[in-house]
UniProtKB/TrEMBL annotation:
CDD domains per UniProt: KOW_RPL26
Protein name, per record: Large ribosomal subunit protein uL24 C-terminal domain-containing protein
Family: Belongs to the universal ribosomal protein uL24 family.
Record carries keyword Ribonucleoprotein: yes
GO molecular function: rRNA binding; structural constituent of ribosome
Length: 183
């Protein structure tokens, strides 16, 4: 009953989640190893792999850091199970670990030979981007074509026909060809 201004439903209508100011250039991506440098005292100094990045709220989900317990119910058997899952940590509370010595560092980016490279400002060592894995587990580097896959040559031959005609001219040419008229 949102019609009554004193009801809980009416109070909840007024609360909208405000999106955080987005960070323009993210230097931490999924798969990086980071360390918590600010936040709860029990979590400071812990490090882990970034599982997920929420760019709308400027939050990171880190493996083994700030975990909370959730109760999940199985609807078929009506049994519950306790599951550990990471809680979000703000982007400013973590630092990327330097691959050379394993200590937290500040990161700068620079374009070298047309490629953007991340490097540590303390040791000037390059920080490689982690290999990105798809959710379905298929890796483009290790994927092997099967007989059911269409080869790239066939796709290019059948779908791409370069032409200098405008759209109207190409449509008229196709209509003439379909009607059996000369071009």
């Amino acid at each position: 009953m949102a019609s009554h201004p004193w009801s809980r439903a009416a109070r909840m209508l007024g609360k909208r989640t405000k999106l955080a100011d987005p960070i323009p250039k993210w230097k931490i991506v999924t798969g990086d190893i980071v360390q918590v440098i600010q936040g709860p005292k029990t979590e400071i100094g812990k490090s882990g792999k970034v599982l997920r990045v929420d760019r709308k709220q400027n939050r990171l989900y880190i493996e083994g850091v700030l975990e909370h317990t959730r109760r999940i119910r199985n609807e078929e058997t009506n049994q519950t199970a306790l599951v550990q899952s990471p809680a979000p940590v703000h982007y400013s509370n973590v630092a990327l670990l330097d691959p050379k010595d394993g200590l937290p560092c500040k990161v700068k980016t620079q374009v070298i030979d047309g490629e953007r490279v991340r490097y540590s400002t303390r040791t000037l060592s390059k920080i490689p981007k982690p290999h990105w894995e798809r959710r379905d587990g298929i890796s483009p580097l290790t994927y092997k074509d099967t007989p059911l896959d269409t080869s790239a040559e066939v796709v290019a031959r059948e779908t791409y026909r370069p032409s200098v005609l405008t759209l109207e001219e190409s449509v008229l040419r196709e209509m003439r060809r379909a009607a059996g008229l000369p071009e």
